[in-house]
Amino acid sequence: MKSVCLAFSLLTCLLVSSACTTLQPTEASPEELQRLILSEGFLEPGQRVRLVTADEVVHEFRIAEIDLERGAVMGDDEAVLVSEVVAVETREVSVGRTALLTGGLVYGIGYIIAIAIAPALILGAASP
Question: What is the pTM of this model?
């Protein structure tokens, strides 16, 4: 029984720590987006983004650096010039989805545990 509780606790911790994420578009004109990208705090290293350039190419990567001198958003394997960016989507935690997933899984696992231990409780109560 202790191993079941331990497994349940570990699974719950993993689910809570690995939150659901979703891409959120930034509603702004290309000029406003370019100003935002070059301003401090809008995009940061380590953040996952999807950038669409004027030639309609989609670049999706984790930001390694924002090079203000070159005017570029740098990933590990590519660089996108800020002057070419026409759309930005940033990956953000979806609190609602995470809560639903965690709650549903906790309920489901609790149900499975209850079914698994019910025969032992019934048989244990029935014996003299």
Answer: 0.57
Q: Following DSSP, what letter does each residue of 55-79 receive, concatenated?
A: T--EEEEE--EEETTTTEEE-SS-E
Element spanning 51, H or E: strand 48-53
CA–CA separation, 19 vs 10, rounded Å?
15
Mean pLDDT of 48-60: 95
pLDDT band at 40 (very low <50, low <70, confident <90, very high): confident
d(CA 65, CA 104): 38
Q: Going by DSSP bridges, is the β-strand pair 85-93/58-62 parallel, antiparallel, or unpaired?
A: unpaired
Q: Is residue 126 part of a domain?
A: no
The domain tally of the chain equals 2
Q: What is the dihedral of CA 16, 22, 27, 29, to 10 degrees?
A: 120
Sheet holding 79-81, edge to edge: 65-67, 72-74, 79-81
125 vs 30: CA distance, rounded Å: 70
Range of the domain at 39: 21-92
Residue where the block lists tokens 């004109």: 29
